[in-house]
Design brief:
With 245 residues, this protein is α/β, with parallel strands linked by helices. It has a domain at 97-166. 36% of the residues lie in helices and 28% in strands. It has eight helices and nine strands. It has helices at residues 26-30, 67-74, 107-117, 122-136, 151-164, 181-196, 209-215, 233-244, and strands spanning 7-22, 37-52, 56-60, 82-86, 92-96, 169-173, 201-205, 218-223, 226-231. The strands form two sheets. A six-stranded mixed sheet has the order 5-6-7-3-8-9, sandwiched between helices. Strands 2-1-4 form a three-stranded antiparallel sheet. The mean pLDDT is 88. It binds adenosine-5'-triphosphate (ATP).
């Protein structure tokens, strides 16, 4: 039973704000007429959920509803302004476009760097290197700086690193929706294979109803930083689809 499984991720009453300085008009700035005010945007508001080990959780919601912010907080890139996030000692990796690669370094060098940032030894990464390169399937580009990559190639490499250097928790931000059809299918199948082993906890942020329906055990629908619904895909997705129509 799901209730008896250990928790992989506990999110309790989490709030995350973005703080920026309110800019006045050029005249106001020039003559310092107005005091600089801080603008606060509440991106995640009092969010709580629990992901048991081996569960696949999907997060969906319209643009700007706080999904990526939540994911980055789970990954430890942002800290919550209030509330708690507990990973119960599990290793975690975040797969997201534009996060994690050093543009000047080659694909091969980025594999080593990413692997080490994930906490794997150099020997282990070198052992897995051929498998990662083979899965990414980007040919000679593997020895070119990643700044020369297309976004599809970039995500192929990112996906391959995370899929082959397995961490206990894998966070995926919309990556399955990029890349060409062939890679999309390959990464989708790899995800399914990883999921079927049931030893990995996955959180997927996606706008694709078919991905969410096919892969996930539970769905969170976020809206304006809050959870609107949190239930099985067959309960949440029809209501969400209706809402978005
Ligand atoms: N660095 C930032 N500074 C200020 N506001 C931000 C910043 N990053 C995001 N936001 C705002 O926070 C809100 C949540 O953003 P977030 O990226 O988490 O949404 P999302 O649900 O992932 O959106 P999408 O579906 O478009 O990826 C948005 O309104 C966004 O404008």
């Amino acid at each position: 039973m799901e209730e008896n499984r250990n928790s992989a991720i506990s999110v309790r009453n989490v709030c995350i704000d973005y703080k920026s300085l309110k800019t006045g008009s050029i005249k106001e700035n020039l003559f310092k007429i107005k005091k600089v005010e801080q603008e606060i945007f509440h991106a995640v508001r009092n969010v709580s959920f629990e992901v048991p080990e081996g569960q696949i959780l999907g997060i969906t919601g319209k643009n700007g509803s706080g999904k990526s912010t939540m994911l980055r907080a789970i990954a430890g890139i942002f800290s919550a302004d209030s509330g708690e996030i507990d990973l119960h000692g599990h290793t975690i990796s975040l797969l997201s476009i534009g996060v994690g690669f050093k543009n000047e370094l080659s694909g091969r060098e980025n594999i080593i760097l990413s692997g080490m940032l994930l906490g794997f030894s150099r020997d282990f990464i070198m052992e897995k290197m051929p498998e990662i390169i083979e899965f990414a399937g980007i040919g000679n580009f593997i020895d070119m700086p990643v700044k020369t990559y297309s976004s599809g190639m970039y995500s192929k490499l990112a996906f391959s690193i995370t899929a082959i250097l397995e961490t206990e928790i894998m966070l995926i931000d919309e990556v399955l929706s990029v890349g060409d059809q062939k890679f999309k299918k390959k990464s989708y199948n790899k995800m399914k294979e990883l999921i079927s082993k049931r030893d990995r906890t996955v959180v997927i942020v996606s706008h694709s109803m078919s991905t969410l329906e096919d892969l996930c055990d539970q769905i969170i629908w976020m809206h304006d930083g809050e959870i609107v619904m949190y239930d099985k895909p067959e309960i949440v997705l029809p209501v969400y689809t209706d809402f978005m129509r």
